[in-house]
Amino acid sequence: MKKLEVDKILEKNGWKKNKIVGILQDIQDVYYYLPEDVLIYISEKLNIPLSQIYSISTFYKAFSLKPKGKYRIKICLGTACHVRGGYIISEFLKNKLKILPGETTKDELFSFETVNCLGACAIGPIVVINEKYYGQMDVEKTEKLINKLK
Ligand code: FES
Known about the structure:
Blueprint: H1 3-12, H2 20-31, H3 36-46, H4 50-59, E1 71-76, H5 79-97, E2 103-104, E3 110-115, E4 127-129, E5 132-134, H6 139-149
The protein binds FE2/S2 (inorganic) cluster (FES).
């Protein structure tokens, strides 16, 4: 953990207990998950019980307590993407990466999750890698992308 980085986030949020959700969002933006040592540090600095921080971290689906991969893949399984083959891409990714949605590969290169509607249904099925959207995807295009990143 880089204390300076975390201190900057606490400073930005005024070192205020009532900004804890925003603080956790900022932490996740930096680390892509909520590392335990950072949560302990925040708990001590803001005098918030660690159990309370964990209960917030697990309440919001957007927060992750598990490390994410260098490449964070989302596959949309909203209705429009699902019927156009999103599910097939999701199954392909499970087999190709040998992980289930929500997991990270052992080499920490890829993590993969399924989401519901990313608001770009017209160009579905959608695959997102590190916030970059790829539309009209299929298994072949997804495989090419993954192989390029390896
Ligand atoms: S259903 Fe996939 S973007 Fe809307």
